[in-house]
């Protein structure tokens, strides 16, 4: 190990022991609990994850409970975190752990890496946090810290630079392993320190360099490059998309539909909606074109009740929400379920898994309906 790596690793460990956040999944060394937290933390803020993690652990306290659970219930518990493939992969991985490992979470990097939904970063995080193994991690926070610390001006998304960063992360965690007295989980703490420093000190904007224990080692600080690193290239602009969503009411029930089992938001429920591309059709015409042939009766007056705004990945989404009522069908053979969706009471809707934007519609317009209804 180099003298510099030894100094950097030592300062990171000392800083983390004094300043690391007291997060619930850091109080355990159960790999299942840590795995759930790491999957939830992908693309999601720590503040948001804490409550979700507690709720998840109450409902699915161990891998057997998760493996045996119905996917719809899993998606309901996950609802609001987005990127629902993560939840589906958790279910698949839990079943694999039960089937192939008798319910014992695997403790080698290769076996952890082989689980559905677990990539290089997540496998390294689980192995270091749960088993104190010298496996490196590299997420956005760590990339920002390392590019500034070592003055790396190339784009970290490019493969050669990315591999260089993985190598630097590996060197630091292996150095921590060699420095370890055996009494403390230094591999886990080193990786957590890298993440914490990126999240709390070496932030994207207005980094707190004066509080950084690595200031004297930092090439970006020395050369005045802190604000320009990491060099991520030109950021893709947000693409606006506009939808019309329809709240269709019939004697205390609302029409919803389930998305197909492939594609975006697979298996989740939503209110009937359609993308508005050019504005040539009115909301009534859009509804008629999409649903009216399959409805049991002609909808009554269509009324705009509000707007929901939502952003995901590179899309800025606007949903204009419209309400209408339809009378009960004259023929009793018209069942609760038909080609356009299913009629549910509000209490039943609460038990379904909706994507975030449609969950907002449910909370705003049905759970607490506007007076216009």
What does this protein look like?
The chain has helices at residues 3-19, 31-41, 46-59, 63-68, 71-78, 85-101, 109-113, 120-131, 140-149, 159-179, 186-201, 219-223, 283-290, 346-349, 356-367, and strands at residues 239-250, 253-258, 269-270, 273-275, 303-312, 315-325, 337-338, 341-344. It has 373 residues and is an alpha+beta fold. It has 2 domains: 3-228, Endonuclease III, domain 1; 239-367, Nucleoside Triphosphate Pyrophosphohydrolase (Alpha-Beta Complex), CATH 3.90.79. Strand 5 (303-312) and strand 6 form a beta hairpin. Helix 2 (31-41) runs antiparallel to helix 8 (120-131), helix 8 crosses helix 11 (186-201) and helix 9 (140-149) crosses helix 11. The chain is elongated. The relative contact order is 0.11.
In the CATH hierarchy, what is the architecture of the largest domain at level 2?
Answer: Orthogonal Bundle
Number of E-state strands: 8
Secondary-structure-based class equals alpha+beta
User: What is the CATH topology of the largest domain?
Assistant: Endonuclease III, domain 1
- The first-level CATH class of the largest domain is given as Mainly Alpha
List the helices and strands and how they pair.
Blueprint: H1 3-19, H2 31-41, H3 46-59, H4 63-68, H5 71-78, H6 85-101, H7 109-113, H8 120-131, H9 140-149, H10 159-179, H11 186-201, H12 219-223, E1 239-250, E2 253-258, E3 269-270, E4 273-275, H13 283-290, E5 303-312, E6 315-325, E7 337-338, E8 341-344, H14 346-349, H15 356-367
Parallel strand pairs: 1-6
Antiparallel strand pairs: 1-2, 1-4, 2-3, 2-8, 5-6, 7-8
């Amino acid at each position: 190990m180099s003298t510099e790596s030894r100094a950097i690793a030592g300062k990171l460990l000392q800083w983390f022991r004094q300043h690391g956040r007291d997060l619930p999944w850091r109080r355990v060394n159960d790999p299942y609990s840590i795995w759930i937290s790491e999957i939830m933390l992908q693309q999601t803020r720590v503040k948001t994850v804490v409550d979700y993690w507690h709720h998840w652990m109450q409902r699915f306290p161990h891998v057997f409970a998760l493996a045996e659970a119905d996917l719809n219930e899993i998606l309901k518990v996950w609802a609001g975190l987005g990127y629902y493939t993560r939840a589906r992969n958790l279910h698949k991985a839990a079943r694999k752990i039960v089937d192939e490992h008798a319910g014992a979470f695997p403790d080698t990097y290769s076996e952890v890496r082989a689980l559905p939904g677990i990539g290089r970063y997540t496998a390294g995080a689980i192995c270091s946090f749960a088993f104190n193994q010298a496996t490196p991690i590299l997420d956005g926070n760590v990339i920002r810290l390392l590019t500034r610390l070592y003055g790396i001006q190339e784009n970290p998304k490019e493969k050669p630079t990315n591999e260089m960063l993985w190598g630097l992360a590996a060197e630091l965690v292996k150095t921590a392993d060699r420095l370890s007295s055996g009494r403390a989980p230094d591999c886990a703490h080193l990786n957590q320190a890298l993440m914490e420093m990126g999240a709390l000190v070496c932030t994207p904007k207005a980094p707190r360099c004066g509080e950084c224990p690595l200031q004297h080692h930092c090439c970006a600080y020395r050369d005045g490059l802190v604000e320009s690193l990491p060099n991520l290239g030109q950021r893709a602009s947000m693409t606006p998309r506009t939808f019309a969503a329809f709240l269709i009411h019939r004697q205390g029930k609302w029409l919803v539909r389930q998305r197909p089992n492939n594609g975006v938001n697979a298996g989740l429920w939503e209110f009937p909606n359609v993308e508005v591309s050019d504005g040539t059709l009115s909301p009534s015409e859009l509804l008629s074109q999409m649903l009216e042939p399959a409805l049991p009766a002609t909808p009554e007056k269509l009324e705009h009740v509000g707007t929901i705004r939502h952003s995901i990945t590179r899309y800025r989404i606007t949903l204009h929400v419209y309400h209408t009522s339809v009378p009960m069908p004259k023929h009793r053979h018209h069942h609760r379920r038909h080609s356009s969706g299913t009629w549910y009471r509000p209490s039943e809707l609460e038990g379904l898994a909706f994507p975030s934007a449609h969950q907002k519609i449910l909370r705003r317009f049905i759970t607490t309906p506007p007076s216009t209804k």
